[in-house]
Amino acid sequence: MLKRIRRIQNIGRFADCNSAGCEFKDTTIIFGYNTQGKSTLTAILRSLQTGNNDILIGRKTFGSTSAKKIEIDFEENSINQNYIFQNKTWNKSNPNIVIFDSKFISENVFEGEAITYNQQKNMNSIIIGIFGNELNKEINILQEKSNGYENSKRIQTIEFSRHFPGIQQEKFIAMKQDLNIDKKIQDKDKEIKFEKEKEEIKTIIKNHSDILNAIDFSIKSTLQKTMNVKQEEIENHIKSHFANTENAQSFLNEGLSFMKDKSKDGSERFCIFCGQELGQKAEKLLTVYSTFFRGGYKQLQNEVDIAIDYFKQTNITAVVTKIASDLKMKDLDIGLTDEKIMEITELKTKFEKQLDKKRDLNYSIDFTCFDNIRTAIEALTYELKIIEQQKLNVVSTKTISNLEKEKEVFDITKKRFTPTWIKYCQDIKDIEVNAKEARRLRDEKRKELETYSSTIFDSHKKVINEFCEIMGSDFKIDDFKPLKKIVGQDERIFAIKFFDSHKIVINNNNDTMPNFRNTLSESDKRLLAFAFFLTTLANDKELDKKIIIFDDPMSSFDIERRRKSIQLITDICTRYKKSDGTDVIVRPRQKIILTHEDRFAKELFELIPNSKTLKIEEYIDLGNKRSKIAYSNFSKDFPDDEIINKIQKLKQMLDSRNFMIPFEKDCRIVLENIFKRKYYFDLLDLISNNKSIRSFVEKLKELEINDFNKDEKFNFFIRLCNALNEELHDNETEKTNGDKESILKDFFISLKMI
Q: Is 380 left (phi over 0), alpha (psi -120 to 50) or beta?
């Protein structure tokens, strides 16, 4: 607990406060007038509780240039702990301090005439306590994780869309690997290329078909012909018998035409030149000449030569090579491989060797190679015709656009299973798994918090309404429930019900309807805040560790609520049952109550006679108002007769010539009280009409009572009324200390004159 304040240096009104001998007890009551330093003490304790040094850094003692310093002793487990604030920071904090003051109200209940969402959120946090806030913290951490995963996924998705515009990421990830994808892409490329080059291919196929069809394989019939002519024998005969062989054949041919034909009876023929009988040998030679000149040898030789030259000049290799090249460029395959072309070339070469032998018409050609060439050419012609019939002359079922889309799918499928995108998909899956797990855990914690919060809110609602009833309020809270939304501004954790039947919502600002600001008085609002604070204490199982600070708890309260407020502060405790059913009562480690109301302080002391009573005193230092903490004897400082108490204070002020505190109001209260007691029946009408001193003096003058009708006495009182600004509030002249001393002296003279 807080044991003593060793020093407060240059914090607010406390320029150099050393409260030696003013040790605190379990209950300590501190009296101090407004502006003398109660709020500064509360700020010091709040800074110590929260560790927020800024609370004190801005509280400057005017007229001082020295550094700020605070030393406070706490007793913790019978060990003294020294808390020091210097160099703008505390050496440590004390989280066991709990404070009820205007800041608690403005942060957690209401501010001015409104209850904001943030205040409700803070109150929700207070009510659910450490356990609930830890759950809420876990929920927020899990939510942040979930948001982080979702943000990572969003960034990844943006990157994905940059590479694959228009593609659904989910479908991309779900793609199955295709081991034949390269072949499918290749085939689709060929298909697209074929469709784009279809007309060109038609022309190429037609040209090659025409060339192949133009190859004349009918020469085979010519090349098959033979003629048994002994040409060598003729040539030998001419060389042997003709001196000039140049025109020998023409001569022999012409002579042969003059020969008679052989008779049918077989009779011998005779030479047309010498008349000799032609013998068997001559007839045989004439037969050879006849066959040579009259059997079509020349014609056949010419036909064969033409056929041979045609075949040799037909470059079948070039034709099939060109076909193969053109079809390959168009990605068409009819089996015309290099080996096939080489085979055709070799067949042609072999057949040409046969043709060389055919110069001798007696030679019979082997047409095996020729036939194989023709079969190969016919096969090529057939394949070209098949392409033409089955591909070129068939209406396509798919447009080029459709084919390109199909290829795009294949391309994407291939990319999907490259190392980069395999990793990407795995990362996305991991993110989704982690995000799902974070959401699952978050939802579990939310459910746990919701169950816990509902229970704790029910407990708090009961206690709050009990406090409201004890303090005589006409209302109680209703619809008390925890906040559910993580974000939002429209939720409120309670409503207010008057007389058990008239409910008002606290976030309704429509002045045409009952609402918080137009239905509750300032005292009601303060009572509500006080009840909220008390219920947080009544539900705190660790209350015995807490130091409770009340800063002016009676501020704005009606007088009739004072007695119950004092009792509630006195009886603060937490009651609960252990798991074994044992009843437990826990009381605060310490209570410190600061107040500016002397009656409240005295009545609280009467109820807690063992409490320590202190006061904040004001003094003047080099013309500046300062404050210090001192011991206070409430019986002496706050006597039962308030009029006598005021007279004593005024006399003390006159004797000490300390006029820093305004005294005019107390003078008027004393004078009015004495006039009313002494001349009650004479002034009854004026008293009933709330008249005051000036009117009393004028009435007594009129009635000629106690020499008030004499000018000296009458004028003395009128001048005193003017000095005290009684009824005349237009005197704004600042009084000097001499004026104040003179007025107080006249005041005490007037007491004797009355």
A: alpha
Q: Are 139 and 446 a contacting pair, CB within 8 Å?
A: yes
Q: CA 364, CA 387: separation in Å to the nearest integer?
A: 39
Angle among Cα 67, 613, 609 to the nearest 5 degrees reads: 155
Q: Under 8 Å CB-to-CB from 597, ≥6 apart: which residues?
A: 552, 554
Is the distance from CB of 396 to CB of 195 less than 8 angstroms? yes
pTM metric for this prediction: 0.56
What is the tens place of the pLDDT at every residue in 677-723?
A: 899 999 999 998 989 899 999 999 999 999 999 999 999 999 999 99
Could you tell me whether strands 79-86 and 89-90 are parallel, antiparallel, or unpaired per DSSP bridges? antiparallel
Three-state DSSP class for 639? coil
Quickly list DSSP for 261-307: PPPTT----B-TTT-PBP-HHHHHHHHHHHHHHHSSHHHHHHHHHHH
Q: How many whole angstroms separate alpha carbon 216 and alpha carbon 400?
A: 40
| CA angle, 680 then 682 then 687, to 5° | 55
The H or E element spanning position 584 is: strand 583-586
pLDDT per residue over 408-448, tens digit each? 999 999 999 999 999 999 999 999 999 999 999 999 998 88
The one-letter amino acid at 556: S
- 320's CB contacts (< 8 A; 6+ apart) are 336, 340, 341, 344, 376, 377, 380
Q: Classify residue 474 by its DSSP letter.
A: S
From the list 720, 713, 714, the residue with the least C-alpha distance to 743 is 720
Cβ distance 492 to 507 under 8 Å? yes
Q: What span, in angstroms and rounded, lies between the C-alpha atoms of 192 and 551?
A: 87
Q: What angle do CA 716, 722, 728 make, to 5 degrees?
A: 145
Q: Determine the angle formed by the axes of helices 522-538 and 117-163, rounding to 10 degrees.
A: 70
Helix (H, G, I), strand (E, B) or coil at 246: coil
Q: How far is the CA of 213 from the CAs of 206, 224, 309, 313, in angstroms? A: 10, 22, 19, 16
Please state the separation of Cα 368 from the chain's center in Å: 84
The amino acid occupying position 700 is L
Q: Are strands 27-31 and 612-621 parallel, antiparallel or unpaired?
A: parallel
How far apart, in whole angstroms, are the C-alpha atoms of residue 5 and residue 19?
6
477 near 465, Cβ under 8 Å?
A: yes
b/e per residue 37-49 (b: at least 16 CB within 10 A): bbbbbbbbbbbbb
How far from 103 is each of 39, 42, 111, 547, 564, CA to CA, in Å?
Answer: 10, 10, 9, 17, 23
The percentage of the chain sitting over the pLDDT mark of 70, rounded to a whole number, equals 86
Please give the Cα distance from 145 to 135 (Å, whole number).
15
At residue 12, does pLDDT exceed 60?
yes
E strand or H helix that includes residue 576: strand 574-577
> How many whole angstroms separate alpha carbon 526 and alpha carbon 556?
7
